[in-house]
């Protein structure tokens, strides 16, 4: 092979998250989750709690207009779709517009969504702070409704769904966010972890019963490194911070606790459904790579400070959140891992996706 061609090939595959040819083909991808993977449902449902995602700077980097994604550009699910040569997933709620084609999959994720049903939060008198009632079980019902339009006979459905990838999550992060943001203590919130994990594994089981065979189930991100947590729970006590990265240790331990329980839940599912391929996606580990070595991954402005915000030590200001008066976006979002204090930049999502698709952060490998 010509040396120059070889060089050019290496160069290309280095800069795209993936070259699709090497990966197993899926016919469709169905995604369930929250703002980490919502490609427009929350916006289509009105986005009352977070209307700023309807305008720039949201979407500025890749789409050049706001799409309803809670980032400057593409999300992990977009990079996964690209890696398998599939179109970016259309949001399910565009179904009412009639023009959408869901043959290559659909996205049911809604920003603010919880794994547990709203009832759980209303019973604790914090239901009113939920951004949305479109919890995981609602998203599952949407899938069942859509399924009848995608395939007819059981045989046809089985063969179509067998060739589809089901991404269940990340979901559950908001169940904890809501609790922590109203003052819940770590030990109290820990009590809800088994319930959240059960809601996730129950949804995965339901999908397998519907015909899903390949499932990817992501865990939670290191929330102790998130600008909103670092701001709300900042303390002069240095012992609370991880000296290697400046993250809040107790909240990262919390994420790890959730992730460990989730993996145990997936192990149980694998025993129950030996024909299914249930893949755990280690978002925590994949994100930790760039949190430990920001410069090495191109995050020259660090990974803890938000690109878009209204001031404060982590550029997260609840009175001037990204998109609101008093906030502004940085010049180069790709130098930041954190986009708006809560969500990550396209650059960070690209790294996480790369870690799943090529790296060691999907087990078993995708
Ligand atoms: C969720 O449902 C409750 C009860 O029906 C309702 O009061 C509340 O406004 C809904 N929340 C949202 C964000 O739609
Ligand atoms: C947060 O935003 C408010 C409203 O714009 C502003 O008055 C305040 O100074 C900001 N706080 C910081 C720490 O920049």
TrEMBL record:
Signal peptide residue numbers: 1-20
InterPro entries: GDSL, SGNH_hydro_sf, SGNH_plant_lipase-like
Pfam entry (one): Lipase_GDSL
Superkingdom, natural source: Eukaryota
Protein family (similarity comment): Belongs to the 'GDSL' lipolytic enzyme family.
Keywords: Glycoprotein, Hydrolase, Signal
Designated name of the protein: GDSL esterase/lipase At5g45910-like
MF terms in GO: hydrolase activity, acting on ester bonds
